Amino acid sequence: MKLAMIGFGQAGGKVVDRFLDYDDRTNSGIVRSAIAVNTAKADLMGLDRIPQENRVLIGQARVKGHGVGADNELGAEVAEEDIDEVQNAVDSIPTHEVDAFLVVAGMGGGTGSGGAPVLAKHLKRIYTIPVYGLGILPGTDEGGIYTLNAARSFQTFVREVDNLLVFDNDSWRSAGESVEGGYSQINEEIVRRFGVLFGAGEVQAGQEVAESVVDSSEIINTLSGGGVSTVGYASEEVDLTASSGGLLSKFTGGSGGGGDDGLDAANTTNRITSLVRKAALGRLTLPCEIDGAERALLVLSGPSDHLNRKGIERGRKWLEEETGSMEVRGGDYPREIPEVSASILLSGVTNVPRIKRLQQVAIEAQDNMEDIQAESEDNLEDLVQDDTEDLEPLF
Ligand code: GDP
């Protein structure tokens, strides 16, 4: 499907930048337009791919291009005050060629955390196409203020978008690696996971279209109904030269598309079934219990002779049983790459212990900050006043 992506804040801008790079590399054609919005001039300058004219600096009157310093209330205020400047950039998007907006932001900071929900609300008021959010949760080691920001932004962002896709930095940190050091790898993971998914609804010119190919409307229907989504992914290398459909399907009279009989078809089906399980039970972009997900979409991607209908059907049935959902869609995304992958979008997830923990820590941080603030006046008084009160201020 074709998206208009708007990266809000530093993380948002960097991720959209990487999406453009991914699009070029894979010829996926998912980013129709890309915009970056920030209160920090330096962050906008640090982007590589987003066109200069699509980089919008907001809040100059308030913060003079220096950012909002992790104050997401200020981030939200500034976004509201300067929404016309963002709209000017959005005006350049040919929205009739776009299936949806995707507003991307790190939820732990200030600009994106506060601004992204404001922008989503604005876009929803003006446009009829869906507005999705891609929200990035901070690592648990980032500290109380980031957790509090994220918890408050999460509540607001979910309410303002048609669906909030979540990526949790915390569960993607490689062992022994700080989140900061690992952003480039993490960002690559983000664009790969969401790229395969959104790319599925985008058929390239000259590409053969099987009837089981996933269409944008299936992605949109899976996301409609709102709530929170997570994505699972698993892949396996395959040999493009020893294409399975080739010889065997000729002998068995199959017409490509993997054929549904013969030993190779059985291998293909088994590979797909185990990839589906790995994708659903492995690391999700937002870790959660998949039981209770309201809707799901299974996308099988790879060379067309390595995909078959039976595999997708089995995968879909298995997902229905595991999630308890009656709305599990599935289809192909044929790509001539030496890899078969299963991508699973779980939409409307509700059993998410990670969010409950985030909220608990946020409440503790909020209480602590209030206590500290309440004590600070007394403490300062104690510090400034000499014990015997012999000294007098000048005036
Ligand atoms: P803002 O510019 O004020 O919106 O704040 P940032 O985007 O710099 O940071 C917000 C949060 O996003 C941080 O707490 C990190 O958790 C996360 N973050 C920052 N940069 C990146 C990035 O490049 N990739 C990812 N995945 N997360 C990031």
Automatic annotation (TrEMBL):
Gene Ontology CC: one annotated term: microtubule
Segments for region (Disordered): 373-395
Any Pfam family the entry gives: Tubulin
Tree of life domain: Archaea
Keyword GTP-binding: yes
Source organism of the structure: Halovivax asiaticus JCM 14624
Chain ranges of the Tubulin/FtsZ GTPase domain: 2-195
Residue positions binding GTP: 10-14, 110-112, 142, 169, 187
Family: Belongs to the CetZ family.
Name the UniProt record assigns to this protein: Tubulin-like protein CetZ
Protein's UniProt keywords contain Nucleotide-binding: yes
InterPro entries from the UniProt entry: CetZ, CetZ_C, FtsZ/CetZ, Tubulin/FtsZ-like_C, Tubulin/FtsZ_GTPase_sf, Tubulin_CS, Tubulin_FtsZ_GTPase
GO molecular function: GTP binding; GTPase activity
Transmembrane segments: none
Keywords, alphabetical: Cell shape, Cytoplasm, GTP-binding, Nucleotide-binding
SUPFAM superfamilies assigned: Tubulin nucleotide-binding domain-like
GN (gene name): cetZ
Function recorded in the entry: Involved in cell shape control.
Subcellular location(s) of the protein: Cytoplasm
GO biological process: cell division; microtubule-based process; regulation of cell shape
